[in-house]
Automatic annotation (TrEMBL):
Name of the protein described by the UniProt record: Interleukin-2 receptor subunit alpha
Single GO molecular function: interleukin-2 binding
SUPFAM superfamilies: Complement control module/SCR domain
UniProt feature coiled coil, ranges: none
GO cellular component: membrane
GO BP: immune system process; inflammatory response
Record-linked InterPro entries: IL-2_rcpt_alpha (IPR015486), Sushi/SCR/CCP_sf (IPR035976), Sushi_SCR_CCP_dom (IPR000436)
Oligomeric and partner information: Non-covalent dimer of an alpha and a beta subunit. IL2R exists in 3 different forms: a high affinity dimer, an intermediate affinity monomer (beta subunit), and a low affinity monomer (alpha subunit). The high and intermediate affinity forms also associate with a gamma subunit.
Lineage of origin: Eukaryota, Metazoa, Chordata, Craniata, Vertebrata
Disulfide pattern: C104-C147
Location in or out of the cell: Membrane
Predominant subcellular localization, coarse grouping: membrane
Function description: Receptor for interleukin-2. The receptor is involved in the regulation of immune tolerance by controlling regulatory T cells (TREGs) activity. TREGs suppress the activation and expansion of autoreactive T-cells.
PROSITE patterns hit by this protein: SUSHI
Source organism per UniProt: Rhegmatorhina hoffmannsi
Length: 167
């Protein structure tokens, strides 16, 4: 897909990710990753279903990171579970089994980190936009855009969200 739509002062989320999607964690201010820790995760489709592969990345307080305190290494793989989906998707019934097999749910949240897209998204990806608190003065304050192939062109469906703090 081409670059996703951008809306200033909006949070972008997705409830399902197409296999092949790569995301990476970015540490919040005052935190840093341990040297050699890979921040990337990838949605992979395997025989038992789609799941995220994790490398054990975590954000550590810079003050602690600079000390010589030992750290524990973790290697995690998230198995597809119903718990990884949002309550909205649990209500959509028939989609759950299909979604678990063919899409990854939201990646796990890590303390002191946020997720960013590593590359472009794939056809079929749906992104949800919601104005941040204080920038929701003009309607509509949320919306969805989907990457689709239309007449041979790959596009994002139009997004009509206006995030502003003026009336």
């Amino acid at each position: 897909c081409p670059p996703s739509p951008r809306t200033e002062f909006a949070d972008v989320t997705a409830e399902m990710y197409v296999p092949g999607t790569e995301l990476y964690y970015v540490c919040d201010s005052g935190y840093d990753r341990r040297s050699g820790a890979h921040p990337g995760i990838k949605c992979k489709r395997e025989q038992q279903g789609a799941s995220w592969s994790y490398s054990g990345f975590k954000c550590i307080d810079e003050k602690i990171l600079l000390s010589t305190a030992p750290t524990v290494e973790l290697a995690l793989i998230q198995k597809p579970e119903i718990k990884t989906r949002s309550p909205a998707h649990q209500m959509q019934g028939d989609l759950s089994e299909f979604a678990q097999k063919y899409f990854c749910g939201p990646p796990k949240a890590l303390p002191h980190a946020s997720l960013k897209a590593r590359k472009y998204y794939y056809v079929g990806q749906e992104l949800h936009f919601k104005c941040q608190s204080g920038y929701d003065k003009r309607l509509p304050t949320s919306g969805t855009s989907t990457c689709k192939k239309v007449n041979g062109n790959i596009i994002w469906t139009p997004l009509d969200v206006q995030c502003t703090n003026d009336s």
